[in-house]
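debug: dumping io for the single-chain case to check the tokenizer round-trip. Nothing else runs in this session.
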Amino acid sequence: MKRLFFITLVGIIAAVLPLAAQEQDGQEQADKKKSEYYYVNTTIEKIYPYRKGYVVQYRKGPVGIARVYLPVEWFHDSAGKGEIVYLGPGSDWPSMSIYYKNGEFSHIRLYVRPLSHESWGNIPMGVNLDSHFEDVNEVRLEY
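debug: decoded output
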């Protein structure tokens, strides 16, 4: 009886130990695969081209609208802080994704429709928004 109990106990231990080791290895592999990047995505209500960049209106909460000012230099290849992706046919509404690396602003992607789409607007002649585009180093969304 004691011998059967001992053999059963050894068998259970032999079966459980490899499973515990696999869980630990799996967690280590998952930690290695985690990206240092994360993103926040929001729907664009309206996007306005301006000589110094883009004015993007987005929804903050159920009833509010906020704006971000994105310098045109961000969208040059050398800066690499901005990218415009034109959406193909379909019903997807324009959006923007703001990427952060280790908690700091990294870059932004605008997913937009062609200029003929209703999501594009115009800034009237004579309106000066230059000051909003000065010293812009990051995007902070309002919620």
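debug: round-trip ok. Helices lie at 2-33.
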